[in-house]
Amino acid sequence: MPGPVQAAGGRQQPVAPAVPGADGRFGRFGGRMMPEALMAALDELTTAWREAMADPAFTGEFERMLHEYAGVPSLLYDATKLSEHAGARILLKREDLNHTGAHKIRNVLGQALLTKRMGKTRVIAETGAGQHGVASATAAAYLGLDCVVYMGEVDTERQALNVARMHLLGAEVVAVRSGSRTLKDAINEAIRDWVSTVDHTAYLFGTAAGPHPFPSMVRDFCRGIGDEARAQCLELTGSLPDAAVACVGGGSNAIGLFTAFVGDESVQLVGCEAGGDGVDTMRHAATIYAHEFGVLHGARTFVLQDEDGQTRESHSISAGLDYPGVGPEHAYLAESGRASYRPVSDTEAMDAFALLSRTEGIIPAIESAHAVAGALQLAEEQPGSTILVNLSGRGDKDMGTAVEWFGLGETAPDDDAGAPPA
Amino acid sequence: MSTRDAFAAARAEGRAALVGYLPAGFPDVPGAVEAMRTMVEHGCDVIEVGLPYSDPVMDGPTIQAAAQQALDGGVRTADVVRTVEAVAATGVPTVVMTYWNPVERYGVDRFARDLANAGGAGLITPDLVPDEADGWVAAADEHGLDKVFLVAPSSTRARLARTTGACRGFVYATAVMGVTGARESSSDLAGPLVARVREVSDLPVGVGLGVSDGRQAAEVASFADGVIVGSAFVRRLLDAGADRAAGLAALADLTRDLADGVRRG
Predict the structure, then answer these.
(1) pLDDT the model gives residue A179
(2) Residues of A assigned a catalytic role
(3) For A25-71+104-218, CATH number?
(4) DSSP notation for B92-131
(5) How far apart (Å, rounded) are the C-alpha atoms in residues B175 and B206?
(6) List of chain A residues whose C-beta atoms are within 8 Å of the C-beta of residue B55
(7) Which one of the listed residues B13, B28, B41, B48 is annotated catalytic?
(8) Distance between CA atoms of residues B59 and B179, nearest Å
(9) CATH C-level class of A76-100+223-406
(10) Which domains are assigned to chain B?
(11) Annotated catalytic residue B59
(12) What is the pLDDT of residues A66-94, one digit of tens each?
């Protein structure tokens, strides 16, 4: 039954990672590479977040909202038909069934509730394809906050429906025309806004990246994914999974899944990055694979960059993974060897997208299809194992891409002229 | 030569120092050198050479546009070092203003060494606070370079003490809570910030963000040791477009106006 989940065996309370330290560093990653003007606000936010997480009134309200409003805890689904195809038992954590259709509602509800607690009245957010923007606008509408979403001009054109959703929810959408006019430039513009408005505005950062405390705070708001899935898996199968798999752009859904299992040495943690056209081309977003240390958006981490340290444009068929940086904790987990990361190409992801749709009747977000593809690879490498996959979002938003990729929407050649489309 | 010497020389004349900024490679590498020399010739006491960066979160639209033009023109980090060398040869202290990743990528020690060899005075680091700057502090100390960190109206007293304690040369006080760009009216946050800096530091204080003409320069010069101007210079070159001579003439006019302002303050 739904409700707060209790582990059926094993440890009752999964161990939290020992990082970051008070300075927000995960080994050589993380920290605060930000203008001095924001340091006081980041300190204030860190204090408020720590106090809130220790206050049962806050955590209780957060859980109530997640449960009553967002549909959490999400199901753990035993995907028997996909498993049969794959040759391993695949369990899907159904974050696609949450309100607004992805894990992201957890993060925005947490941050928006913290904003209210801090007495601020306005939130800003960046968005790529529009998912975090829609989630932020939703949380702002639900909690009565003003909301401004920064979105690259290129993305506002590609994702006009999400712009309309945000407008309907009462948010203002600003089309960002600087730089490459995509997600990274939307983040730049949101930071510029925040430097000017920090006394009354909170920045709802969309992923587990950025300056301290965002990587840890976003992790904490998303870690229910793994905590629930761990308990659900124990209840369903009587043991822990052999592997936990998630897609990684900035890395919020993956860190939300991994955190519960970091202390479980038997559980492999596998992140799937966007391999785009292939990691041997320049057109990918596999930041950890590329392994170039640098600074982006407030943290030391791996960054896609040129010889002079200028950020390179990333590429992925999935807008949610199309980011040239990665959360510092993932960089740390990769370097320490606790988690492994592998690139999944556009083609592999779209094959998995189609396979899950056909075998299980579940259309995943293309982001999440990268994780499914990674799980299929693992199944081949380790037949008979149990693989937990975070199905981080649903695919309704991706139908335009799917239509184009698969050439969908045409009726079969032998259909009558008046028949409904197949 | 440290920027501190330029501030001391200005103080000896009973005035504030004028610090002028332009990005390297804008409108192109030789064009930027010529523009900065023009600014020196007409009264800038310190030159800030901007290192164009793909993600300049502290810059408003004017400097973003110039940096983008420089990057589109193919400017490289090595060009920035060469620009410093050409400008420092005029005799004014020349510092680089840079976001941190390009320095990290070039190699912090290598950058410090090459900058020092080029005659550069040091670095201004808008997205590097002393808390994160161990490597840079060590390299700067080894090569005798100025370390100019920023303070802001939101900085607590403890942070002001820590940040100014890590500075050498001067302290860069941001006059407003916001990004670079010319503003019509002067900030009422700058004066109190400078006063708070003086409680914890003996270093000269330069005030930047928003100063665009001689009148504003005079106002700032009445309470600060230096007046820092960037976007207004960039704007003159952007407005002149392909007419390089007109751009340089406009830069000269603005520099004279500002130089007059820092003497009235």
Answers:
(1) 83
(2) 104, 126, 392
(3) 3.40.50.1100
(4) S-EEEE--HHHHHHH-HHHHHHHHHHTT--EEE-TT--GG
(5) 10
(6) 179, 184-185, 188, 296-297, 311
(7) B48
(8) 5
(9) alpha beta
(10) 3-259 (3.20.20.70)
(11) yes
(12) 999 999 999 999 999 999 999 999 999 99
